[in-house]
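PROTEIN DESIGN WORKSHEET
SECTION A - STRUCTURE
LENGTH: 239
TOKENS:
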């Protein structure tokens, strides 16, 4: 049920069978969500967090004029709002990009787990810090990278994160984002995003179509992005 989440954890930590059983016990229920649904609204009082079992979610903030900035894309295995455990409400919305299966994790279960097993508490604290690292990389992209560097970087990051979760096959991964949603990730107009995507195709770095990305030249794409995965903390961590 939570295989992608456990793969993500095993990449970075040594887990005992007992710890994995404790983690599996966090999910009280699951539900299916259709695409384009707002699951958590800014300001709502929270007593559960959402573990994305399958599908794609985004965190985003909306402007009064209707413009939207996506601040992070979540893939299978991610906690979308673990920080809601301490904040008790969010300052942004969480919405579905695709059909999703969501695991409902009551904050009471998180509290009980962290009290029983402080090591796992540190592990999930680590994951919230890693989310912050992904946000910082997004800020760098929006502030300093060119359009083509931003797009290349996003594709490189998503490939690595999906590969860790067991959701990338060879040089391909599912990609349910529309061009508008892609533009909202990158802080570009739809027209600019389309032109940038065409340039990556022209350079024979990636192909995007049929809700899928195929990376043609991974080394070339990483060179354009100046991609360094250190901020994803892929090595085993001492907790």
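SECTION B - SEQUENCE
RESIDUE ASSIGNMENT:
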């Amino acid at each position: 049920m939570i295989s992608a989440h456990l793969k993500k954890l095993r990449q970075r930590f040594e887990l005992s069978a007992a710890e994995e059983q404790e983690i599996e016990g966090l999910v009280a229920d699951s539900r299916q969500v259709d695409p384009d649904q707002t699951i958590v609204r800014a300001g709502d009082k929270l007593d559960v967090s959402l573990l994305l079992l399958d599908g794609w979610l985004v965190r985003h903030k909306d402007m009064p004029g209707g413009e939207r900035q996506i601040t992070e894309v979540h893939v299978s295995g991610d906690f979308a709002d673990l920080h809601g455990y301490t904040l008790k409400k969010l300052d942004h919305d969480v919405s579905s990009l695709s059909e999703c299966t969501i695991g409902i994790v009551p904050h009471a279960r998180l509290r009980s787990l962290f009290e029983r097993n402080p090591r796992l508490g540190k592990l999930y604290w680590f994951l919230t810090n890693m989310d912050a690292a992904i946000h910082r990389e997004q800020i760098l992209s929006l502030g300093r990278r060119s359009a083509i560097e931003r797009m290349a970087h996003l594709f490189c990051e998503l490939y690595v994160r999906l590969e860790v979760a067991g959701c990338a096959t060879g040089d391909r991964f599912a990609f349910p984002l529309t061009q508008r949603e892609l533009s909202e990730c990158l802080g570009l107009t739809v027209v600019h995003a389309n032109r940038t995507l065409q340039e990556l195709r022209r350079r024979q770095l990636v192909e995007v179509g049929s809700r899928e990305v195929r990376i043609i030249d991974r080394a070339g794409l990483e060179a354009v992005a100046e991609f360094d995965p250190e901020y994803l903390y892929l090595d085993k961590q001492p907790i």
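SECTION C - NOTES
The longest helix spans residues 118-144.
The longest strand covers residues 48-54.
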